[in-house]
Amino acid sequence: MNASTSLDDLMEQSIRDFRKEPAFFRALLGATVYAHAPLNDSSEKLRLVMFKSPDDGELVVPVFTDKAKAEFAARGNVRTIPLTGRTLFEITRGAILMLNPNDARCTLYPEEISELLASGTIAPIQKDQFGENKARCYKLHKLPRPLTKALKKSLPDIRGVEVAYAAGLKWREANLPDGVVIALGGHPDRAEREVRAVLTALHRTIVAFDQPVDIVHFDCNGAKPNWIRNLGLKPVYRRRLGSPMPVSEFN
């Protein structure tokens, strides 16, 4: 099995089972990956080709785990450039990267790439549909201080999150431990990115925490979720009017 096939296998495993993500991302840093550059470019700096994501229209840098995949996608219109994952992530800081866009694609946002370079991993994510029929939310007397501190430190820099609430969470399945649920009020078209950015920012705090933490998202311009209203929760964070938004040269 060659290196690219091994990386592809790890990627497929991580898509099927989020617990395999750390192994894939560790391998990705040291593996050779492939990007596209313009055919005729007189610039002394390496410039990479970008395209609009079919998911949300954001500009992304396509990255391929296999040279054959990269050249098939290039179709002779661009050059294929080999780089280590770490080098690519370093030189594209601030950009959104999409791995294997023509297959089971994986999008990496700038916050996640910075965390990957700093710690060698990214917060593993397990998606599920949150429903009040699955769990009961209850009012906490006090949100754990490390979590409060991490939220107030990270949320001002996460574009789009306007307000956040927190509550205790008791699952109806007896074998699942109690936890904490954080509700982010933002914009529906950026929901996944906002949730992933918060998970990335809170990852180290959550790992050291003695309870699981779930994050849900709601439209800040619509009605609050019923459980927030019923519990009479006050925000643990609200963006101040005129707070500066982070700016990137790529997005």
Structure description:
There is one protein chain. With about 250 residues, the protein is an alpha+beta fold. Helix 1 runs antiparallel to helix 2 (about 20-30) and helix 6 (about 145-155) runs antiparallel to helix 7. The relative contact order is 0.13. The chain folds into two domains: about 5-120, Uncharacterised protein PF11572, DUF3234 (Trna Endonuclease, Chain: A, domain 1); about 135-240, Alpha-Beta Plaits (2-Layer Sandwich). The two termini are about 40 Å apart. The chain has helices spanning about 5-15, 20-30, 65-75, 85-90, 110-120, 145-155, 190-210, 225-230, and strands spanning about 30-40, 50, 60-65, 80-85, 95-100, 105-110, 135-140, 165-170, 180-185, 215-220, 235-240.
Note the quaternary state here.
single chain
The helical percent reads 25-40%
N- to C-terminal distance: 38 Å
The CATH fourth-level homologous superfamily of the largest domain = Uncharacterised protein PF11572, DUF3234
Compressed to H and E, one letter per element, the order equals HHEEEHEHEEHEHEEHEHE
Radius of gyration: 20 Å
Portion in beta strands: 15-25%
| Low-confidence residue ranges | 244-251
Shape: elongated
Average pLDDT reading: 86
Number of domains as seen in the coordinates: 2
How many DSSP H or I helices?
A: 8
Number of DSSP E strands:
11
Named CATH architecture of the largest domain: 3-Layer(aba) Sandwich
Largest sheet: 6 strands, mixed
- Class computed from helices, strands and strand pairing: alpha+beta
By CATH reckoning, the class of the largest domain would read Alpha Beta
The CATH topology label of the largest domain is Trna Endonuclease, Chain: A, domain 1
